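Encode chain A's predicted structure.
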Amino acid sequence: MVLADLSVRKLDEETYERLRSRASKHGVSMEEEVRRILKKKPIYTGKHQFHIYETLRP
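Encoded structure for chain A:
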């Protein structure tokens, strides 16, 4: 199995802090929290698009 890397640049401070807080609440790293969000929330499933941002909204 090949594992890929992903870097996110220019993330606004509010989103960064919500992600950091969410990861802390779940007792995991921010990297692990992002993996969990991406696995849980598909970006596109045929007819419907899902926005990852919705996961981080307060």
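The longest strand covers residues 44-45.
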